[in-house]
Design brief:
By secondary structure, this protein is mainly alpha-helical. It has 23 helices and seven strands. The protein has helices at 8-15, 22-47, 56-69, 91-100, 107-133, 137-149, 151-158, 163-179, 193-212, 217-236, 243-270, 279-283, 293-317, 333-351, 357-373, 388-411, 416-429, 431-445, 450-453, 458-472, 484-490, 505-514, 528-539, and strands spanning 75-76, 83-84, 478-481, 495-498, 519-522, 546-549, 560-563. The protein has a five-stranded mixed β-sheet with strand order 4-3-5-7-6, with helices on both faces. α6 (137-149) packs parallel to α17 and α13 (293-317) packs across α15 (357-373). The model is unreliable at 3-20 (pLDDT under 50).
C-alpha cells in the first residue's frame, strides 16, 4: 500500500535470512506447504459429514444454486410458484451453480468444493503471514498448521455455507492490498500493468465480497481505512503522494456502493416493498421490541462480555467449548480476564507486523463491532469464522514477540529464533484441545442420518414428518410449516410455505385459504407451530384431521401432520 515503488533488489535482500540460502528457503517453503496440505486432507477427511446441516441456511443456498443452474433464476423453489429471493446475496449460490452443471444435485460434491475453498484460504493465509512479517516462513507454517486443525473452521468447511468463499475473497483482498505498489500504477512512465490488474482485481473482489456475504462490508471498510490512513500520513507530512492511496480508498468505497446498489435495486424491482432483512437484527430485539438507548447499552455490554469472556478465548484455546446456537451465558470473571489477555496478546502481535497492521486490525475490530450491535442470540464462532485465522496469526505473532522480548532481557540481545520456537511450541500445545473439538463433529459425522443419531430429537421428528409426506402426500401437496426449505428437501420436493409467526384465528385461516394449503406440520423443533397453529386446529378438529403423529418420547408434544379441509370450517362447531 505504498505510494513509492521499492527496488526489487532491496526486497530480495530484506527477505533473506542469515545463513539460509535461497534454494534452502524454497525447499523449506515447498515442504511446509506440502505438510499443511497433507494435514488438511487428513483432518478434513476425518471431519467430513455427508449429511445436510440442520440449519436451514445451507439448504437455502443449495436450492438457490440449483434454481440458477436449472435456469429458473434467483428464486425460492419450495413455494408452489417460484418466488424471487431477496434475503441472501446471490454470490455463493451463483458460485455453486457453475459446478452444479458438472455435478447436478450432488450435495457431496458441493461440500467437497467448500473444503477446497478452505484449503485455498489457508494457502492465501500462508502468503499473507509471509508478507506481513517480512518473510517469516516458520511463523507462516505454524499459523497454517493450527488453522487446518481448528475444529470450527473444519466444521464450516463441510457445511454448504458462504463462509469459506467469503474467506477466500477477503484474504484475496488483504493479499492484494499488501502487494499493491501505487507508485507503479499512478505514473506517467513505466507503468506496471500487473499492478494495474491487481487494482482492478481488488475492486472486483470488493464487489464480490458484498455479493457473497453482507458482512463483507467489514473487510471492504478495512481496506478503505488502510489506504485512507496511508493517505492521511502523507498529507500530514505534506507529501503529494497522499493522492494515490486516497484515490484507491475512494475506488474501494465506490466498488462497495456499486455492489450494494445493484443488489438493492434488483430487490426493489422484484419486490417494491423490499426492506433489508438484516436491519431488523439491529433495530429490534428478538421479541420484536424496538431498540431504545438503554436496550442498546444492554445489548452491547452483553455481547462484549460474551465475546470477550467466552467465544474469543474458547475459539482460540478450547474450541470444544464453543457450541454454535448455544444461548450465551454470562461469562465468569476468570473467562473475561483470560479473554482480555488474549485480546491484548493479539493486539501486540498485530503491532509487530511489518505490513498490513491497520488492515488486519481494523478487519478484526470492525467484525466484532458489528457483532456487538447484533441481537445477543447471534453470538457465536460462526459469525466470525472468516477472521478466526487472522486471530490465530495475531496470537502466534504476539507469543513470538513476547519471547523475543524475554530473550532480550535474559541475554541482553534479541534472539528471533527464541520467539519462533516458542510460537511453534505453543502451536503444538493446542493440538490436543483442537482434536477434542474435532471429535465432537466426528461423532456427528459417524451417523449416516440424524434419525440414526438421535431418533427422539425434535429435528428427527421433523424429518420423520417430512419423510411421511414424501411417501403419502400427492404431487400437488402444499405444506404449511416453520422451515419450508428443510421440509422441501426432506419431503422429496413437496412445495412448502412458512406459516405466520403470529396472528389470530381469522388471519391464520385466511392464510391457509389464500396460500391453498392442504397439509400442515406442527412440531416442537420450531416452537411457533404449537403457539400459532395448534389453537386453531383444536377449535376446528373436523377441518384438521390428524394423519400422522410422531412418538412423544422426550418431546413435550408430538410432531403432527394434519390435512386442511376448508369445506369443514363452516360445519365445525368450535
Amino acid at each position: 500500500m505504498s505510494g513509492k515503488s521499492t527496488p526489487k533488489k532491496n526486497i530480495t535482500k530484506a527477505n533473506k535470512k542469515p545463513g539460509v540460502n535461497d534454494k534452502g528457503r524454497k525447499v523449506l517453503h515447498v515442504l511446509f506447504l506440502l505438510t499443511i496440505g497433507v494435514l488438511f486432507v487428513f483432518n478434513y477427511k476425518a471431519s467430513f459429514d455427508p449429511k445436510l446441516d440442520p440449519n436451514g441456511d445451507n439448504i437455502n443456498y443449495f436450492l438457490l444454486g440449483k434454481a440458477l443452474s436449472e435456469g429458473e433464476g434467483y428464486v425460492d423453489l419450495f413455494p408452489p410458484e417460484p418466488v424471487p429471493h431477496t434475503h441472501f446475496p446471490p454470490g455463493y449460490p451463483m458460485f455453486m451453480s457453475v459446478f452444479m452443471h458438472v455435478f447436478p444435485d450432488n450435495i457431496i460434491a458441493m461440500k467437497i468444493l467448500n473444503g477446497l475453498l478452505f484449503l485455498i484460504s489457508v494457502l492465501l493465509l500462508f502468503r499473507i503471514v509471509r508478507k506481513a512479517t517480512g518473510g517469516n516462513l516458520w511463523l507462516a507454517f505454524a499459523v497454517g498448521v493450527v488453522t487446518v486443525m481448528h475444529s470450527s473452521l473444519l466444521r464450516w468447511s463441510v457445511v454448504m455455507m458462504s463462509e469459506m468463499l467469503y474467506m477466500v475473497i477477503s484474504f484475496g483482498i488483504i493479499l492484494i492490498c499488501l502487494d499493491l505498489d501505487l507508485g507503479k500504477i499512478f505514473t506517467r512512465t513505466g507503468r506496471d500493468w500487473k499492478q494495474v490488474v491487481r487494482l482492478v482485481g481488488l475492486c472486483l473482489l470488493v464487489i464480490s465480497s458484498y455479493l457473497v456475504r453482507t458482512m463483507g462490508i467489514s473487510v471492504v471498510l478495512s481496506a478503505a481505512l488502510a489506504f485512507g490512513v496511508t493517505a492521511l500520513k502523507y498529507l500530514l507530512e505534506k507529501d503529494r503522494k497522499w493522492v494515490k492511496p486516497a484515490v484507491v480508498s475512494v475506488m474501494v468505497v465506490l466498488s462497495l456502493v456499486v455492489a450494494h446498489g445493484g443488489w438493492s435495486l434488483r430487490n426493489r424491482l422484484v419486490r417494491p416493498d423490499y426492506k433489508s432483512d438484516y436491519s431488523s437484527g439491529f433495530m429490534y430485539t428478538e421479541d420484536r421490541q424496538r431498540m431504545t438507548p438503554s436496550l442498546w447499552v444492554d445489548r452491547i455490554s452483553t455481547n462484549l462480555k460474551v465475546f470477550t469472556g467466552k467465544f474469543i478465548p474458547d475459539s482460540l484455546l478450547r474450541p470444544k467449548e464453543v457450541i454454535d446456537h448455544e444461548k450465551p451465558k454470562k461469562p465468569q470473571t476468570k473467562g473475561v480476564i483470560i479473554g482480555t489477555l488474549m485480546i491484548l496478546l493479539m493486539a501486540y502481535g498485530i503491532s509487530r507486523m511489518k505490513k498490513g497492521r491497520v488492515l488486519i486490525l481494523s478487519y478484526i475490530v470492525i467484525t466484532f463491532a458489528v457483532l456487538c450491535l447484533y441481537q445477543e442470540q447471534y453470538a457465536g464462532v460462526r459469525y466470525y469464522i472468516p477472521v478466526l485465522p487472522l486471530m490465530i496469526f495475531a496470537a502466534l505473532s504476539g507469543i513470538q514477540g513476547l519471547f523475543v522480548l524475554l530473550s532480550k532481557l535474559a541475554f541482553r540481545k534479541e534472539i528471533a529464533a527464541v520467539g519462533t520456537v516458542a510460537a511453534l511450541i505453543c502451536s503444538a500445545a493446542v493440538f490436543p484441545s483442537y482434536l477434542k473439538g474435532q471429535q465432537v463433529y466426528k461423532d456427528v459425522a459417524s451417523f449416516k442420518t440424524y434419525l440414526e443419531m438421535n431418533p427422539n430429537s425434535d429435528f428427527a421428528h421433523y424429518i420423520m414428518a417430512a419423510e411421511w409426506l414424501k411417501t403419502h402426500a400427492g404431487n400437488n401437496a402444499v405444506v404449511a410449516c416453520r422451515k419450508p426449505e428443510v421440509m422441501y428437501i426432506y419431503s422429496g420436493y413437496k412445495h412448502s410455505i412458512m406459516f405466520p409467526l403470529r396472528g389470530d384465528e381469522e388471519e391464520i385461516l385466511r392464510f391457509l385459504d389464500e396460500s391453498k394449503i392442504n397439509c400442515i406440520v406442527v412440531d416442537t423443533w420450531a416452537r411457533h407451530a404449537y403457539t400459532v397453529f395448534y389453537p386453531v386446529m383444536s377449535n376446528y378438529p373436523e377441518a384438521f384431521p390428524i394423519y400422522y403423529k410422531t412418538p412423544q418420547d422426550n418431546s413435550p408434544a408430538p410432531t403432527l401432520v394434519a390435512r386442511y379441509v376448508p369445506s369443514k370450517i363452516d360445519k365445525a362447531n368450535p
